[in-house]
Amino acid sequence: MKLSRREFNKALTALGASGFLLSYRAEIAKALEQAKNDGVKLVWLQGQSDTACTVSLLQAADPDLYDAVEELKVNIAFHSTVMPAFGDEAIEVLETVDPDILVLEGSIPTGDMEVACTFGERNGREVTLVEWLNELIPRTKVAVVGFGSCATYGGIPSGKDFTGKSPTNAVGLYQFLEGKKPSVPVILLPGCPGHPDWLLTVLAGALLGVVPDLDDYWRPKTFFSALIHDNCARRGYYDEGWFAESFERSDMKYNTCLFKLGCRGPMTFSSCSETKWNGGVNVCMNAGAPCIGCMHPGFPDETNPFFKEQSRLEIDATKTLFTTLTGTVLVGAGAYIATHAYREHKLNNKKNREEEKK
């Protein structure tokens, strides 16, 4: 059975990442087995990163990385962290390979700081990540995938310092490919780190010959079309105006929302709350930590300062994603202000009644 693009997107929407991988495991295995026989190659480059996205991939489930490599026959032609080859032997792969799928982990230092990330040499001169990308992207046959916030939109390395710019002029694929997007699909999966099940789903789809529907930020709509806030287990506490005032009362047992502790769930589109992490066990907010917006295209500058309440988060999120929809921004902003004021009024009335009882 070969899934069509429509069937792939429909199944992915209905089942989610883990459910899709489990339900279509036989089809995926067959596709990847055929890909192995056809010599399909996956190249994984690492830019400015802490390798957390690779560590995240090692925690994948349904299938885990061992299954993906051994049972599903993924041919990882180059991955500097997990490949046995090193030195000239490893670099020779990059010189000769025409990737079917090119995955980038980590941000891209540009401009006068390209030398912040180099690997391999030519005639005694180090080769920059920018050079490798400029050579490999045009040779990529199926898809280019950015995994993690650094690779997609610049992430932490792109954060502005006291001079107002990134120390290494770091960008993600979204900015790097602006105006020169390749002929193959570019699929971006932000996150700090990226979610392993989402990546394996995208890789499986690409090798099945289809890609998920993408939004304007080149993200799969299935994973990035709803606010984290809307599907958070604490959403009901937000609606009731029950907010944690300190981290001493951020545990789920207190039945409080983390909005006043700086939660960025109301401005960040991602399916973290549904897919969860570590095999579907947990997510930041359930563990007592407010969302810091690592999936947001403007992370970290637009989600700073962390752990500090920003009362207009939802308005800013609406402006960021829907400014082209003209007056709807103002309507959404007005609705939010009215709703927030009502909740504050309701909370104050509740506090006043409790004080009167005392």
Task: Tell me what you see in this structure.
By secondary structure, the chain is α/β, with parallel strands linked by helices. The protein folds into two domains: 5-207, Rossmann fold; 228-357, Cytochrome-c3 Hydrogenase, Chain A, domain 2 (Irregular), CATH 4.10.480.10. 38% of the residues lie in helices and 10% in strands. The chain is built from 13 helices and nine strands. It has helices at residues 5-23, 25-37, 52-58, 65-71, 87-96, 129-136, 149-153, 173-176, 196-207, 235-240, 272-275, 313-322, 328-357; strands at 42-46, 76-79, 101-105, 108-109, 118-122, 125-128, 143-147, 170-171, 186-189. The strands form three sheets. It has a five-stranded parallel β-sheet, with helices on both faces. A hairpin with a 2-residue loop joins strand 5 and strand 6 (125-128). The radius of gyration is 22 Å and the shape is globular. Residues 313-343 have low confidence and may be disordered.
Q: Short description, anyone?
A:
This protein is an alpha/beta fold.
Backbone structural class: alpha/beta
Largest sheet: 5 strands, parallel
What is the domain total for the residues?
2
Low-confidence stretches: 313-343
End-to-end gap: 69 Å
Topology of this structure?
Blueprint: H1 5-23, H2 25-37, E1 42-46, H3 52-58, H4 65-71, E2 76-79, H5 87-96, E3 101-105, E4 108-109, E5 118-122, E6 125-128, H6 129-136, E7 143-147, H7 149-153, E8 170-171, H8 173-176, E9 186-189, H9 196-207, H10 235-240, H11 272-275, H12 313-322, H13 328-357
Parallel strand pairs: 1-2, 1-3, 3-7, 7-9
Antiparallel strand pairs: 4-8, 5-6
